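Page 42, continued from yesterday. The earlier attempt failed because a stray header line got pasted into the input along with the sequence. Redoing it now with the clean sequence only.
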Amino acid sequence: MNKSILKAIEKLYSIIGDRDILNDIKTDILTENTCRNGRAVLWYLTENTDVAIYIDTLELLTETEKEKELF
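This time it went through. Structure tokens are written below.
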């Protein structure tokens, strides 16, 4: 993993709380995705939590951005 992804993971998990990152990756709760706009995001998705963060700027995606860029 590169430094940008590690920083994005750090920020994302500071928001959602302490979790088992490796398990989240293995079970596809935490995924790296490419948006329609071409930007890379980390997306944490469970039935109770839906958080996505741009890897390059560490900005969280709004609900509108998630719907437009990821669905």
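Notes: The mean pLDDT is 95.
Reminder to self: strip header lines before submitting.
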